[in-house]
Amino acid sequence: MKLNFVKLDPSGNTTILVTSPVPRGEQAGVAARLMPPDRLCAEQVGFVEAAKLPGARARLQMMGGEFCGNASMSLAALLAREGGLATGAEAEIALEVSGASGLVRCRVLRAGEAEFRGSVAMPLPTEITEVELPGGPRVPLVRFPGIAHAVVPEAALSPAGAEAVISGLCENLRTDALGVLLVAPDGRSMRPLVYVRATGSAVWERGCGSGTAALGAWAAVRAGRDVDLEIAQPGGRIGVRARFSNGAVNEIEIRGSVRLVAEGEVYL
């Protein structure tokens, strides 16, 4: 099998976008073969498809059917480049994305030949509740369509402990993907571990867009007001703005950078 791909780096969260058609039933298996270091070495894989929603430029189907803000920003940057966006210019691009029921709106600024800055209007949480860690404390759980994130104080769970519990926790929560976010006491930095059920992959991501959105949403609920934060992660910083009113989060936006790394053909 020969596939066309583009590799991008959104805030450290290396992402492969496959632009060749791949049947949905084969995508998880293809993604699992593309991600290892002896192939394309990435943290996640998305598949570019034709959109069905009016106004969407394309559809992004993630490898496990989950939603991903960083991959959405990456596809928006790729489409902006293909559309000839000039350096210094901005564009708004609407996408159809797995795990999101409506249009996902992205803004992209082209900062250089292969450098972009962008923002994504994220889907809102479907629920903010708590979950009990196996043998541990109860921690906040922020559910989005297609993915949930447990906000865990870094002192409460070791990295090895996170790796040991994440797959079982994902199954119990019946979500397509689960993040365990090991968060520093000040709430301004985290290490995200993300498990995708369809591929059976657990990756310590260098930057997690939906995890950043989850942390912003939880911070807004806890404070009872709007928040605007920069969350440090192993690959850099991702910004999040969450608006809070009438007892709920009603708007979340993440912002970050995207760098085009490589493009070409891969053989499987």
Description:
The chain has two domains: 2-120 and 257-267, Diaminopimelate Epimerase, Chain A, domain 1 (Roll); 127-254, Diaminopimelate Epimerase, Chain A, domain 1 (Roll). It is α+β, with helices and mostly antiparallel strands. It has helices spanning 24-34, 69-82, 159-173, 209-223, and strands at residues 2-10, 15-18, 44-49, 59-62, 90-97, 104-110, 115-121, 127-132, 138-144, 147-153, 177-183, 190-196, 201-204, 227-233, 236-245, 248-267. It is globular.
Q: Helical segment tally?
A: 4
CATH class of the largest domain: Alpha Beta
Strand-and-helix sequence, N→C?
EEHEEHEEEEEEHEEEHEEE
Portion of residues in beta strands equals 35-45%
Global shape: globular
**Can you tell me the CATH architecture of the largest domain?**
Roll
CATH topology of the largest domain: Diaminopimelate Epimerase, Chain A, domain 1
User: Kindly, what is the distance between the CA atoms of the first and last residues, rounded to a whole number of angstroms?
Assistant: 5 Å
Strand order, largest beta sheet: 1-2-3-4-5-6-7-16
Entry summary:
The protein has 268 residues and is α+β, with helices and mostly antiparallel strands. Helices cover 21% and strands 45% of the residues.
Topology, element by element:
Elements: E1 2-10, E2 15-18, H1 24-34, E3 44-49, E4 59-62, H2 69-82, E5 90-97, E6 104-110, E7 115-121, E8 127-132, E9 138-144, E10 147-153, H3 159-173, E11 177-183, E12 190-196, E13 201-204, H4 209-223, E14 227-233, E15 236-245, E16 248-267
Parallel strand pairs: 2-3, 4-5, 10-11
Antiparallel strand pairs: 1-2, 1-16, 3-4, 5-6, 6-7, 7-16, 8-9, 9-10, 11-12, 12-13, 14-15, 15-16
